Amino acid sequence: MEMVAALTAGGLAGIGLWMLLDRRLIRVVLGVAILGNAINLAVLTAGRLGAENAAFVTGTHVPEDFSNPLPQALVLTAIVIGFGLFVYALAVLKGVRDTHGSTFTDEVSAVAEEEAPDGYGTGLEGAEEGTP
Amino acid sequence: MNWLLVSPVLIPLATMVLGILLRPRPRLVAAASVAGATGLLLAGLQLVSLAAQDVVLAGQLGGWPAPYGITVVIDRLSAAMVAITGVVGLATVLYGLVREGDPLVLRNFHLFVHGLLAGVSGSFITGDVFNLYVWFEVLLMGSFALMALGRGRRRMSGTMTYMALNLVATFVFLLAAGLVYGSTGTLNMGELGLLFRAGQAPASATLAVVLMLVSFSVKAALFPVFGWLPASYHVAWTPVSALFAGLLTKVGVYSLIRIVTLLWPEYGAVHQVLLWVACATMLVGVLGAAAQNEIRRILSFHIVSQVGYMVLGLALASPLAIAGAVFYVIHHIIVKANLFFVGGLAARITGSERLSAMGGVYARTPFLALVFAIPALSLAGIPPLSGFWAKFFLVKASLDGGFWWAAAVALVTGILTLLSMSKIWNEAFLKAHPEGEEAVRPPAGDPWAMWVVAGLALLTVMIGFGAGPVLDYAVAAAEQLAEPTAHFGAFVGWVGEAGVLPGRGGP
Fold this sequence. Notes:
The structure holds two protein chains of two kinds.
Chain A: H1 2-20, H2 25-46, H3 69-100, H4 105-113
Helix pairs in contact in A: 1-2, 2-3
Chain B: H1 3-21, H2 26-52, E1 57-61, E2 70-74, H3 76-95, H4 103-125, H5 129-147, H6 153-184, H7 189-197, H8 203-220, H9 238-263, H10 269-290, H11 295-316, H12 319-350, H13 361-364, H14 366-380, H15 386-400, H16 404-430, H17 447-465, H18 467-482, H19 485-489
Antiparallel strand pairs in B: 1-2
Helix pairs in contact in B: 1-2, 1-4, 2-3, 2-4, 3-4, 3-9, 3-12, 3-17, 4-5, 4-9, 5-6, 5-9, 6-8, 8-9, 9-11, 9-12, 10-11, 10-16, 11-12, 11-15, 11-16, 12-14, 12-15, 12-17, 12-18, 14-16, 14-17, 15-16, 15-17
């Protein structure tokens, strides 16, 4: 069980990293999502799998051989956060596409390295050239 | 539960919720935002005054005993960080009270700032590694939204870079937290500290903690993982980049100080690596700044270089050095935020951020030039301003420890910083505007912004002249970091007669 989980986490992390290195932003965003899930699985595995019963402790009954609920709680938190971040990353993807008309990360990130146009940084919007 | 203990998190969160309820009325949102930031500052000052009397607030959220509950500890360092967060938060929302611009965007600015402040203060008060991860994500979410505020091509470009690299760093942190739990069976900082100090931590736990330090280094923009910072900070709206410049990297520095002093109080292998990294960070940052020609890009590289000083103090590990690092963080947050604010005002007056297209600010408003000179000279370490004392303590600590080359790097970096600041001074303030005097606009429109920069400059001068009490506070904070009884307090029952932890077994 642990071996399967560890191999899956490793495989997913590899796929996620490979996608992160892609030029297209959509792949980078998906890579972030996959890498996040790989790490969630790794955290769950590091918390030691094995026991199969849910840890429902009542006043009278303590289940035998129950699994550790703490890594599950950690991963649940991380999944929720990761989902929120993924949705925001998609919004950034759309924003980049709307403003740049391109989602190639090298082309897009080069724009921030250009000289600041006149009027930039003087107000909220910053005088910018028209968006395509 | 002591309300003051959780106030650093509750106040910004409550302000944000109130702001969401008041959404149809942007002016009311702004008023609530200023009130909330003032409240955070007052709570921070109250915490500092308690901490100065050696009161350490600690508690368990939800009432579960440690290590199952989430521990919250406010010692001297945490209290000072919360107070400074209040100062910068208030300065940012006041600066954001501008009239021009899309009112809806301005309203969202206030909501996001308080979301970010909740994450920042939460990171400063938590005593639990996983909880620290959660607060990192909270502040990261706020910072993503703030970075993209106002949209536009450059801003979306910077947001993309910033987001991708910070997300990966946070994933590394999550993985490290999971591995720490897997190898030690605890995520509580106090219990981890006891395990490491007693030499009972397994080798895999050391590895996991080092992985965690790598992720903090990305957040703190240390060499060689600082590239995301100068690629993104200069594209955001001025108050946003000032808030980021003041607070965000310092959350990474704070986490480094907290974890390293807790686990390894004596100079060791980790400190040795950090020492080299700190020296490289100082030099690379300041040399990078020399190659830049835009005011905020120069200042962004200086953030990197200044973070090197703080980590130098941490790496030296002597009491004076740690105190110097704490002093440096306090001084630097105010100075750096102020430089970004003044830079934004100068850009507004001259109509550009490029040094070649700026000029004539001194002739138009000598007051703004003075307000730039104070933090700029303080950043470079000119006496009697706050930066001089911060650098003096660190250089003295390096020489005391026999690291003369680290002291030399710190001094050379100081001189290069001064050169960089005089470049901004000459180009933006002193020389005539290339398009004639008429091109320089009068600094009208937002009186709040002027008050903000003047107030922060006054604070810098006050820290400079009142260095004694601040240093006393920092020295006492360093003592607390060396012997963090408050973190260990929850485990009094765990520690056996000989001060050794009884084996608690894995999960």
